[in-house]
Design brief:
This protein is mostly helical and about 675 residues long. It has 27 helices and eleven strands. The protein has a three-stranded antiparallel β-sheet with strand order 3-2-11. β4 and β5 form a beta hairpin. α6 crosses α10, α6 packs across α19 and α20 packs parallel to α23. It is globular and about 80 Å long.
Length: about 675
């Protein structure tokens, strides 16, 4: 429905728009251009100034079928999606291990400090930036077009993450299926994949009471018992992974694992294919169910013998650790990993918010949920590890694991010692699958949103989203085939490829590099005060100045400090501290890391070289924001004309485009 347009002000604005231009009107996330009421009013030659007051000389209506940018049905959809994405496997299997390793409860001090000065400011920046620009991880950097390489860098990182992270879900799904057996396959040594060294019960306590070389248990001496292998480890390495001799031994496909991988990708596809309208509903289950299971496991865990010792081992403070640099580095790395910073997915999720959503409060609430989940999961994990150590008669440090070792070795061993092992195994691995599933499909959503933002409305077609999601999933699936490949004698090389992706493509260095430049561009190129004003326009008040200080000074220093520490203390990748990757494997790894890191400087240099004029003129031209049409709708009345005067059309025929406004 048409409304009367500006009268006298319209002429002034129209003239300005036809002259020197300071900015550009660009299509928003889905390529459509719409005013307050979703309609577009334009004049081709400024004739509107001489037309009858209250009318425009010509009207351009949006092409039928062009989609409006989606929004969350409820604000809680956004909250649950962020919780589902940020709260993932790292909260359950990485934080508890780092906490016990770095001084127990003392680790919370550097963790909270770096969270306040590094994690929360960037977490808030990414969500606010997406909400303000109404765009995904690439077009959001139209706020400073020269640095659009930041968007491409985040797309590379999240693509790599989507590719290898889903392997953990495939493993969890495989274990979940195997849990539906009366006898768990990893609890016995009478399976085809077991070796003569497999021992179900080690009886270390019996050996400790005798002479190591002479004492026997059954047909084995204590020396042989010490070299024995658990059926859990043999199931993981020989059946699930079938670890090969090295990275350079590829072969046939592990069909069981391939089917699990395909099934998980199908789940991800149908969670994402319809956009945030469907994703926002699914996360209500995927984000909350893990908490239900964690509570059940905690109740069960604290009733087991040895649980108290495990929990005290987890939280007992060791104050001497505060003086070690590695403790602070581990805290910073964990913050950036668990908050999912630098991947662009938070930006994509924020872009579907209402323009006036209070993302400032959301950021603090989500950070609290994320860190609280990590700490809470530690009690669950160490209660069960304490029980496991008590049953085996060993110290807790000998059973404490991190990463896949905790999920697929330590916990499967623990459930074999409980009553009704299949029930607890199925419950745990289903939780693991759900916990990672929402992180996976939100990551895919962030990648697809960034891709679709690159195509303006004139490229609109039905089922564009569905096809894009299918192509993305298929590409990742094809790459994943390298992680489920076998060699002769049914051995697998995929774990080496998986670790290569994990160590380099989305490592701490790539995320820290990304976060550093995000702060620099927003605070020093666009302007921290300017962005604070933009946030105030959205939420109705200015955030505490601490955020501005962090973006400008503290957070970049924290990011670069941890980045340099990682760089100077770099160690070549190994598997289980035994297999050293070949030189060409390291080259592939560094290429994956540099594919994202070089996007930023290369794109800056390319755009500067392509532009004309002096360096100052090029810089000024390339750092002027390209505003989206929604900014006109929410422009403050007292700055309306001033801001409109800095906008111009960026269409092929250089038409002047003016949007209706009710202000």
């Amino acid at each position: 429905m048409e409304k009367p347009a500006f009268e006298t002000d319209c002429c002034a604005v129209n003239v300005v728009l036809g002259e020197e231009k300071k900015g550009h009107l660009i299509p928003n996330g889905n390529g459509h251009q719409a005013g307050v009421n979703g309609s577009l009013i334009g004049g081709t030659d400024g004739a509107g100034c001489g037309a009858t007051p209250g009318t425009m000389s010509s009207v351009e209506k949006p092409v039928p079928g062009y989609p409006e940018r989606e929004q969350w049905t409820r604000q809680m959809d956004f909250i649950m999606s962020c919780v589902g994405f940020a709260v993932g496997l790292g909260n359950v299997w990485r934080f508890p291990y780092l906490c016990y390793k770095n001084g127990g409860g003392v680790f919370l001090i550097p963790y909270l400090i770096i969270g306040v000065v590094g994690g929360i400011p960037i977490f808030f920046l990414e969500i606010a930036l997406g909400q303000f620009m109404k765009a995904g991880s690439i077009n959001v950097w139209n706020i400073a077009p020269l640095f659009k390489g930041l968007g491409y860098a985040s797309m590379v990182i999240v693509f790599f993450c989507n590719t290898y992270y889903i392997m953990v879900l495939a493993w969890a799904f495989y274990y979940f299926i195997k849990s539906f057996n009366a006898t768990l396959p990893w609890s016995t040594c009478d399976n085809p994949w077991n070796t003569p060294s497999c021992i179900e019960i080690f009886h270390h306590e019996d050996c400790l009471n005798g002479t190591i070389g002479n004492t026997t248990y059954g047909n084995m001496t204590c020396e042989e018992l010490a070299d024995g292998r658990s059926p859990i480890i043999e199931f993981w390495e020989n059946k699930v992974l079938n670890i090969s001799q090295g990275l350079d031994y590829p072969g046939s496909i592990n069909w069981e694992l391939l089917l699990c991988l395909a099934a998980v990708w199908v789940m991800v596809y149908f969670c994402v294919w319809k956009g945030v309208k469907s994703t926002g509903k699914i996360v209500y289950f995927t984000a909350t169910f893990p908490y239900v299971v964690l509570i059940i496991l905690l109740v069960r865990g604290v009733t087991l013998p040895g649980a108290y010792d495990g929990i005290m081992f987890y939280i007992k403070p060791d104050w001497s650790k505060l003086g070690e640099a590695q403790v602070w580095i581990d805290a910073g790395t964990q913050i950036f990993f668990s908050y999912a910073i630098g991947l662009g997915a938070l930006t994509a999720l924020g872009s579907y918010n209402r323009f006036n959503n209070d993302c400032y409060k959301d950021a603090f609430m989500l950070a609290l949920i994320n860190s609280g989940t990590s700490f809470f999961a530690g009690f669950v994990v160490f209660a069960i590890l304490g029980f496991m150590a008590n049953e085996q008669g060993v110290d807790i440090s000998q059973v404490a694991e991190t990463g896949p070792g905790l999920a697929f070795i330590a916990y499967p061993k623990a459930v074999t010692l409980m009553p009704m092992p299949p029930v607890w195994a199925a419950l745990f691995f289903f939780m693991l699958l759900v916990l990672g599933l929402d992180s996976q499909f939100v990551g895919v959503e962030g990648f697809v949103t960034g891709i679709l933002d690159l195509f303006p409305g004139k490229y609109y077609m039905r089922y564009k989203r569905e096809i894009s999601v299918a192509i993305c999933c298929l590409m990742c699936f094809i790459i994943d085939l390298s992680m489920v490949t076998q060699v002769s004698h049914y051995r697998l090389t995929g774990m080496y490829v998986f670790q290569l992706f994990d160590y380099y493509s989305a490592s701490g260095m790539t995320l820290l590099w990304q976060a550093f430049w995000e702060c620099i561009v927003v605070s020093w190129v666009y302007g921290a005060d300017r962005f604070m004003d933009d946030i105030a326009r959205m939420i109705g008040y200015r955030p505490f100045p601490w955020m501005k200080w962090c973006w400008s000074f503290i957070t970049p220093c924290v990011c670069m400090g941890i980045f340099l520490f990682h760089l100077f203390n770099y160690k070549p990748l190994t598997y289980n501290n035994t297999y050293v990757y070949p030189w060409w494997g390291e080259v592939i790894g560094w290429c994956m890391a540099l594919m994202s890191m070089l996007c930023i400087p290369v794109s800056v240099l390319y755009k500067l070289c392509r532009a004309t004029g002096t360096f100052k003129e090029r810089w000024e031209k390339l750092t002027k924001p390209q505003w989206g049409p929604h900014h006109l709708e929410y422009m403050a009345p007292d700055t309306d004309i001033k801001s409109l005067a800095s906008l111009s059309a960026s269409t092929e025929d250089n038409k002047v485009i003016i949007f209706e406004s009710g202000m």
